[in-house]
Amino acid sequence: MDELEDQAFNRSLCQQAVYRCQRFSIHGRVLPGSRPLQRPVITGRTSQLHVAVVQENHFKDVNDSLGHPAGDAVLSATADRLTAWAGRGASVGRLGGDEFAVVLPLPRGRRDARLAQLVRMLHTPVTLEDGQVIDVAASVGVAAPDAIGTRDLSLLQRAADAALYEGKHSGRAHFATKKHATVPSVNGRCAGRPGTHLWGRAA
Questions:
Q1: pLDDT at position 22
Q2: C-beta separation of 139 from 28 below 8 A
Q3: In the chain, % of residues over pLDDT 90
Q4: What are phi and psi for residue 37, nearest 5 degrees?
Q5: How far apart are CA 94 and CA 114, in angstroms?
Q6: Confidence of residue 190 (pLDDT cuts 50, 70, 90)
Q7: 104 φ/ψ angles, rounded to the nearest 5 degrees
C-alpha cells in the first residue's frame, strides 16, 4: 500500500475501533478512573498497527467468591492499566464482560518488550478499598494486518481472540497467524454475545 492508502486504512481502523468498543462501564455506570474512548493519532506504516484482545483470567471466581464490587474493582484496575500502557496514540475499550481491546501502533523492534510489559502490568495484584489484595492475571491475543494478510477488522479481532484462547494462561502475549482468522467460534461464543459484534471492513 502507498502512503495515502496507509492513511485511509489508519483512519478507518481507528473509527471502527472507537465505534466497536464500549466505554469502560459496568451495570450502567462508568468505571472509576477510566476515560471515554479517544480516537488515536496514528502515523507510520499500517504494518505497525496491532489489535490486542485482553481477557481477565478466573474473573468469575472473583465475582463468585468476593462479590461484584470486587469484580468491578478488578475491571477498573484493568481499564486503568491498559489505558496507561497504551498511551495517547491508541484506542482502548471494553468489549463486554471481562474482555477489552486495544488498537495501537507497535513498532516491530519494540513489540515484544512492550507486550511483555503489558503482561507484567496485568499480573500486578489489585488492592481493594478494605485493604484486601487480589491476585490477578490476564490472557492477551494480538493480531496485525501484515501477519494476518487482511484489512478486515472483524477478522483481526477474531484472530486476536483465537490467539488469546490458544495461549490462555501461558503468561505471555500470543500472536495470531492466518490460521487464527479462520476460527469460526471461540470458547463457544455465538452471535450476539458481547465481544462478537462485527467491526466491518476498513476502506
A1: 47
A2: no
A3: 39
A4: -60, 135
A5: 20
A6: very low
A7: -155, 160
Q: Which H helix or E strand runs over 96?
A: strand 91-96
CA distances, 67 to each of 44, 61, 71 (Å): 44, 9, 7
Q: Let me know: does 145 contact 151? Beta carbons within 8 Å.
A: yes
Does residue 23 sit in helix, strand or coil? coil
CB neighbour list of residue 193: distance below 8 Å, 6 or more residues apart: 96
At 188, list the grid cell: 463457544
SS3 99: strand
Sequence-ordered alpha helix ranges (H) in the chain:
3-20, 59-66, 68-86, 108-122, 145-148, 153-166
Q: Which of 96, 90, 23 shows the shortest CA–CA distance to 56?
A: 96
Q: Quote the CA–CA distance of 168 and 203 in Å, as a whole number.
A: 32
39 or 50: whose pLDDT is higher? 50
